[in-house]
Write a structure and sequence with these properties.
Largest sheet: 8 strands, mixed
Radius of gyration: 21 Å
Shape: globular
Structural class: alpha/beta
Bound molecules: iron/sulfur cluster
Distance between the termini: 36 Å
Low-confidence stretches: none
Length: 333
């Protein structure tokens, strides 16, 4: 299948007063047009840093490894390696052009003292050849398209005047107005009521069909992933540890961490089953464990190799891989 974006060997460290901190370690994945890839993991797993890397939005103390490649494939063009873009002008393709991002908290996207409409128009003037009148008309259409009633009126309002769900929709409208090929959605439903959450998820699925774009959907919530994504990639302490179709990974989780995340979900059909949290906390990136990064919390940490060697990915079936020594016969035999 054609790829929209291919991330290869993404490794990123932050330079801090305490030394170099590894936030993302050798992460590779791809997203096809029309695909929703869920990126899952606890806080501190490196999901958001990974996502921001696709637009090179991490702070200036971020150091990418030399073999990091982020190739963007646009129709009829040679692949663009986002890591090699030098000028701010060329970077526009990855920032608000072919790639757009929405956040958990829409107030992070909207300037508080500028109306929603003025911000949408300004973005269209930067990224399209629309004049102001056309940009205004199209912005109001987009607000209407994402289900905001009285779009003309909302266009003239400030973000703080809208309800949480409406702000989220306005942010999606703004992100989609430039017709991005890839939408990065960073915990877009986490702060919403369950009913609004469902509306936003349905809206995003409709928009994928209509615009044919790919989505990188970041969340810590496997329930949301089950409803939303085609494929899922699970991260722990900066490493990708399992990836595959949502159906395969959720039904047959193969990495002990993914198994732990699924066991921690409440079972609505049997409320007497006690919740099983994963023991311990995710370690500080300053104290990254050697070998398998999950070994300090893994209930199956029985193999000597776990503390000494980073596990490679084992292919379990087509498009389903996990990185655990227990899956590798050469290590366990
Ligand atoms: Fe657990 Fe070892 Fe597998 Fe890591 S490699 S997940 S420590 S069994």
């Amino acid at each position: 299948m054609a790829k929209l974006i291919e991330v290869e060997n993404l490794t990123l460290q932050f330079k801090t007063d305490e030394g170099l901190i590894t936030a993302v370690d050798d992460v590779s994945f791809s997203i096809a047009p029309g695909e929703i890839l869920g990126l899952v993991g606890e806080s501190g797993s490196g999901k958001s840093v990974t996502a921001k890397s696709l637009m090179r939005l991490n702070p200036s103390n971020a150091i990418y490894s030399e073999d990091t490649k982020i190739n963007l494939h646009l129709d009829g063009q040679e692949p663009i390696d986002i890591m090699q873009i030098k000028s701010a002008k060329d970077m526009k393709v990855a920032r608000g052009g072919a790639i757009s991002m929405i956040f958990q908290e829409p107030m992070a996207s909207f300037a508080p003292a500028i109306t929603i409409g003025d911000q949408m128009v300004e973005q269209l003037l930067i990224h399209t050849d629309y004049n102001a009148a056309k940009a205004k008309k199209y912005s109001i259409e987009m607000l209407d398209r994402v289900g905001i009633s009285d779009a003309d009126k909302r266009f003239k309002q400030y973000a703080f005047e809208l309800s949480g769900g409406m702000r989220q929709r306005a942010m999606i409208a703004m992100a989609l107005s430039t017709k991005p090929k890839l939408l990065i959605a960073d915990e877009p439903t986490t702060a919403l009521d369950v009913t609004i959450q469902l509306q936003v998820i349905d809206l995003m699925k409709d928009l994928v069909k209509e615009f044919g774009m790919g989505i990188l959907f970041i969340t810590h919530d496997l329930g949301v992933i089950a409803q939303t994504a085609d494929n899922v990639a699970v991260m722990y302490l900066g490493k990708l540890i399992e990836k595959g179709s949502v159906r395969d990974v959720l039904r047959n989780p193969s990495h002990p961490y993914t198994q732990g995340l699924i066991d921690a979900l409440p079972q609505l059909d049997n409320l007497d089953v006690p919740l099983k949290a994963i023991a311990g906390d995710i370690p500080s990136p300053l104290e990254r464990p050697p070998g398998c990064v999950f070994h300090t919390r893994c209930p199956k940490n029985l193999v000597t190799a776990c503390q000494a060697t980073v596990p490679e990915f084992t292919t379990l079936k087509k498009d389903h891989e996990a990185a655990c020594h227990l899956l590798n016969e050469e290590v366990t035999s």
